[in-house]
């Protein structure tokens, strides 16, 4: 596999393409989520033809869409419960962005625009916040939760560039990821953040085995799924009772 990857990179580097262009590939296009899945990684690689030394490469990994609730503890009838106060709808379940030049002059602006376009613009609140600080708190809470779960990474890793022509980048996916299509976008930008060229790859993440069986039936056959869950719970409870009875006989 390694020999194949570097052979493809060599072909890319020897091929002629215009200045300000980027071409790419990945070492796997399918990832299976089984009960033994403990995270994985994939290699993004390719070639680029920068217009000058000030050109930078962005790599984004965007997971399938999901929704995230922002909750707040409130007291109802003397009981503290979590109440949903805001929701981010149809946002990436996983997002990672890296750049080849960590010293890019508008790195903070790029970070803000990316987060705004894929996260912040999809905020819906149950009531109007008293001030902008309330909205900012929602943004901070979302990014905090995502980073804590390992599903958000902003310029934490650098892209490996060889001889200003070849690049490679290792994407690490955590244990708990959503199934679906993961997009990997490579973008060549200049000092002002203007996009010069793009390339995109995709990886299909799908459940297999028991996980696929349970997920499919929970959506398509909820009655069977419910009965199956009850039977499993009864079986496990009975087995545990028998085990303790045997141990303390």
Describe the structure.
The chain has a six-stranded mixed β-sheet with strand order 2-13-12-4-7-9. It has five helices and 13 strands. The chain has two domains: 2-207, Immunoglobulins (Immunoglobulin-like, Sandwich); 209-249. The protein has helices spanning 2-14, 107-118, 132-148, 209-220, 222-247; strands spanning 21-26, 30-33, 40-49, 56-62, 65-76, 79-92, 95-99, 123-125, 152-158, 160-162, 166-173, 180-189, 195-207. A hairpin with a 3-residue loop joins strand 10 (160-162) and strand 11. Helix 4 (209-220) packs across helix 5. It is of the alpha+beta class and 249 residues long.
Largest β sheet strand count, sense and barrel closure? 6 strands, mixed
Helix and strand run? HEEEEEEEHEHEEEEEHH
Helical element count?
5
What level of helicity do the residues show? 25-40%
At the first level of CATH, the class of the largest domain is Mainly Beta
Mean pLDDT across the residues is: 80
Q: What is the oligomeric state here?
A: single chain
> Considering the protein shown, what is the CATH homologous superfamily of the largest domain?
Immunoglobulins
Form type: flat
Return Rg in Å: 23 Å
* Total domains: 2
Kindly, what is the distance between the CA atoms of the first and last residues, rounded to a whole number of angstroms?
Answer: 57 Å
Q: Predict the CATH topology of the largest domain.
A: Immunoglobulin-like
Q: Low-confidence segments, ≥5 residues, pLDDT <50?
A: 11-16
Number of strand segments: 13
The portion of residues forming beta strands comes to 35-45%
State the CATH architecture of the largest domain.
Sandwich
Class computed from helices, strands and strand pairing = alpha+beta
Spatial order of the strands forming the largest sheet: 2-13-12-4-7-9
């Amino acid at each position: 596999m390694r020999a194949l990857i570097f052979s493809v990179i060599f072909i890319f580097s020897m091929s002629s393409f215009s200045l300000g262009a980027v071409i790419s590939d990945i070492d796997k296009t399918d990832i299976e989520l089984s009960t033994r899945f403990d995270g994985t990684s994939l290699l993004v690689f390719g070639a680029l033809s920068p217009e000058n030394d000030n050109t930078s490469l962005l790599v984004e990994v965007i997971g399938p869409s999901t929704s995230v609730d922002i909750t707040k503890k409130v007291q109802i009838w003397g009981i503290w419960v979590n109440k949903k106060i805001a929701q981010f709808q149809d946002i990436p379940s996983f997002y990672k962005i890296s750049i080849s030049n960590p010293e890019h002059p508008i790195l903070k602006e790029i970070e803000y625009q990316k987060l705004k376009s894929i996260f912040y613009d999809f905020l819906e609140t149950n009531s109007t916040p008293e001030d902008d600080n309330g909205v900012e708190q929602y943004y901070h809470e979302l990014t905090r939760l995502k980073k804590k779960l390992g599903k958000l990474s902003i310029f934490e890793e650098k892209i490996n560039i060889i001889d200003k022509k070849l690049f490679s980048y290792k994407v690490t996916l955590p244990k708990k990821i959503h199934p679906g299509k993961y997009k990997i976008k490579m973008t060549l930008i200049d000092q002002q953040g203007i996009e010069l060229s793009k390339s995109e790859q995709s990886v299909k993440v799908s459940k297999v085995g028991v996980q696929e069986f349970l997920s499919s039936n929970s959506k398509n056959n909820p009655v069977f799924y419910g009965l199956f869950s009850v039977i499993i719970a009864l079986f496990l409870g009975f087995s545990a009772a028998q085990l303790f009875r045997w141990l303390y006989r």
